[in-house]
Specification:
Blueprint (H helix, E strand, L loop, with lengths): L12 H14 L12 H8 L3 H13 L3 E4 L3 E4 L2 H4 L4 H8 L6 H25 L2 H16 L5 H18 L4 H8 L1 H14 L3 H16 L3 H25 L5 H4 L3
Antiparallel strand pairs: 1-2
């Protein structure tokens, strides 16, 4: 397998090392159960120091891509059974922004499952201060230009993160933060290539009303409608690959 590798020439050697091996593993060029050459051999072939190789392998192991076995060596894992949440970012990077249909479906299903429950619990458990934060974020969303999709994307994540915080579950906000790169990748595509930002902000306003009234049933229904709306338009863009003209973005 050494013939697959060429010397690394970048200041971020560890990151380049990890990216190289991620691509080799995710593409199937390195197969499940395959034993890698020693760190010394890899360092020599890639033109880097052994610490760079070792740190890179530790990072790959943390993502579930390889297993480091003392006195045995480094073995390629089946990432489907041993991968961690951080591997989602690797999968998105590997596809270079083009979402694999099965991966997209899996992410959207998980989001639907989680966030409907988040909305229900937020309506039951929110505090006055948490409600005020949600209202403040929503107000800022309406004040932000629709063409400023980077800010809109960030505000959208902050809104959903604070929904998770309002559930009074200690783990849910940690899950949201773990998924932030994946979440903002998808929502960034949505806000950049559709004219639906104001519709989403209106959903947020309606959800805030349900949460203020502590109406868990309404909160669940609004969250489901919002996620279904977002999924429809995201898939529409991905399937056509066409941007929505700027004029249409500014009509609402």
């Amino acid at each position: 397998m050494l013939d697959l590798l060429t010397p690394l020439k970048n200041s971020s050697l560890k990151e380049q090392f990890v990216q190289r091996f991620e691509e080799l593993i995710l593409s199937g060029k390195l197969t499940i159960g395959q034993k890698l050459p020693s760190e010394r051999e890899l360092a020599k072939k890639l033109g880097v120091s052994r610490p760079v190789v070792h740190e890179g392998m530790v990072e790959l192991a943390s993502r579930g891509l390889v297993t480091l076995k003392p006195r045995v060596g480094t073995i390629i894992n089946d990432f489907r059974t041993q991968g961690s949440i951080s591997l989602l970012i690797s999968l998105l990077n590997y596809h270079k922004g083009e979402l694999d249909p099965k991966l997209l479906q899996s992410i959207l299903q998980l989001r639907m499952f989680m966030e409907i429950e988040f909305a229900r619990l937020a309506a039951i458990n929110r505090t006055k201060e948490q409600l005020e934060i949600l209202q403040k974020i929503n107000k800022e969303e309406f004040l932000t230009r629709e063409t400023d999709y980077e800010k809109i994307t960030e505000l959208d994540f902050e809104y959903h993160l604070h929904i998770a915080i309002a559930t009074d579950n200690m783990v849910y906000p940690l899950l949201m933060n773990s998924f932030k790169p994946v979440y903002t990748n998808l929502s960034g595509l949505f806000f950049k290539h559709t004219s639906e930002a104001r519709k989403v902000h209106q959903f947020h306003r309606e959800l805030n009303v349900a949460i203020e009234k502590k109406n868990a049933t309404a909160a669940k229904a609004i969250m489901k409608s919002m996620l279904t709306h977002g999924e429809f338009h995201l898939r529409k863009y991905i399937n056509t690959g066409k941007d929505v003209p700027a004029k249409r973005r500014n009509e609402k």
